[in-house]
Amino acid sequence: MGSSSSKPAAAKITPHDRAILDLKVQRDKLRQYNKRLEGVVEKELKLAKGHLAKGEKQRALLALRRKKFQESLLEKTVLQMTNLDELTMSIEQAMVEKQVFAGLAAGNQVLKELHKEMSLADVEKLMDETADSIAYQNEIDELLSTRLSVADEEDIERELDLMVEEETKAMLPSTPVSALPELERQLVEEDEVPVSTKKVAGKNRKTANGPMLA
Q1: How far is CA 106 from CA 79, 99, 111, in A?
Q2: Which of 66, 110, 142, 192 has its CA at 20 to 30 Å from residue 26's CA atom?
């Protein structure tokens, strides 16, 4: 079976379209006639000049009369062309206005149908229900934000203790061991000497100082 190519359906020509087409055809014919008249006027003018150059005044006068007649026809043709253009534009404008009116009418009908499906009472009811739902949700959020579990409270206390400890450490000056006074370093060294060594050193100091009085 051969594949048949589907052709788009031709647009239907309305009486208005045909009227506009006829007016444009008539206008084009008048333009062609206008050009011929202009050629005749120019030709009669040359003839008049030629007869006058030859001294044939009567023939020159007759050529000028024919030229005048052609010019009157030319003026009528221009006027008719102007009328046809104005009429064509008026019809086209009226057709556009009709299409706009049809679009407005269709849109208005759609709005009416939508308004039937969405009455003012329904909109007010929906707005009230929405406001109630929002208020209810706000109450839930407020309750959840003010009531904490015991575990949450303990976590908060621990976090607070850590913050206090960090603040205390930050306020204390950091002093290196090398900056301690000489006496403090000696005390630190003595603390590191064993107890037995300290006793022997004490006896030696007493012997060196002499016997003690009874």
Answers
A1: 41, 11, 9
A2: 66
Find the angle CA(153)-CA(155)-CA(158) to the nearest 5 degrees. Answer: 110
pTM of the predicted model as reported, rounded to 2 decimal places: 0.44
Reported as a single tens digit per residue, the pLDDT across 71-124 is 999 999 999 999 999 999 998 899 899 999 999 999 999 988 888 887 788 888
Looking at the chain, how many residues does it have? Answer: 214
Identify the sign of the CA torsion 8, 9, 10, 11.
Answer: negative
Residues 6+ apart with CB under 8 A from 188: 180
What's the pLDDT tens digit per position in 16-72? 888 888 888 998 999 999 999 999 999 999 989 998 888 888 988 998 999 899 999
Which residue, among 74, 82, 79, 81, has the nearest Cα to 38 in the 3D structure? 74
Q: How many CB atoms lie within 10 A of CB 30?
A: 20
Rounded distance between C-alpha atoms, residue 64 and residue 45, angstroms: 7
d(CA 104, CA 91): 20
Phi, psi of 175 (to 5 degrees): -105, 120
- Rounded to the nearest angstrom, the gap between the alpha carbon of residue 98 and the centroid of all alpha carbons in its chain is 33
Task: Return the H-helix or E-strand segment holding 128.
Answer: helix 120-146
